[in-house]
Amino acid sequence: MKPVIFAALLSLTATPAIAQSPAPQSAPARTPDVIYVPTPPEVVSAMLDLAELKDGDVLYDLGSGDGRIPVAAVKRNRVKATGIDIDPERIAEARANAKAQGVSDKVTFKQDDIFTTDFSDASVVTLYLLDSLNEKLRPRLMRLKPGTRIVSHAFRMGDWEPEAERDIDGRRVYLWRVPAR
């Protein structure tokens, strides 16, 4: 009877992949501040245009979701692009998207808190958060090197007036540059 039990147990452990799930990612350090809403491709393109993305730039997408902005950036220019998101599901999705687009070796995704992680080497920062979160990030953004471009989809930065803004089919995109000290 032992061989039958062993065979039954063996067949349970040899179940196809549909019954098995990948190892879980680490849980978010805290609840995400916003729900994930993807930026439409035409807005991603407009954001990178408004940022005047060029070869050699260092781009950070804060709250990167599925990674579409960093992926588009590395497909478009020779840049160092990093997406930062607190949600491990979004990071897994972003990495899968980068792999599907053939750029996983050119882009980095980090599960981290945008309010504490280091992005001090940025020359471009992209955001799709909320006015209140942009304002909360503003002191850190203002410490970036002068000339760093900050582009936000839909949300402003309090009383800091944008240098430029564009309308893309009813969606707003804003640009600020870190001023000289």
Write up this protein:
With 181 residues, the chain is an alpha/beta fold. The chain has one domain: Vaccinia Virus protein VP39 (Rossmann fold). It has helices spanning 2-13, 41-50, 68-76, 88-100, 131-142, and strands at 58-62, 80-85, 107-111, 124-127, 149-153, 164-168, 171-177. A seven-stranded mixed beta sheet has the order 3-2-1-4-5-7-6, covered by helices on one side. α2 crosses α3. The termini are far apart. Residues 1-24 have low confidence and may be disordered.
Features:
single chain; 181 residues; alpha/beta; Rossmann fold; seven-stranded mixed β-sheet; 5 helices; disordered N terminus
Question: How would you briefly describe this protein structure?
Answer:
The chain is of the alpha/beta class and 181 residues long. It has five helices and seven strands; from the N terminus they run H-H-E-H-E-H-E-E-H-E-E-E.
Write the layout of secondary structure elements.
Elements (H helix, E strand, L loop, with lengths): L1 H12 L27 H10 L7 E5 L5 H9 L3 E6 L2 H13 L6 E5 L12 E4 L3 H12 L6 E5 L10 E5 L2 E7 L4
Helix pairs in contact: 2-3
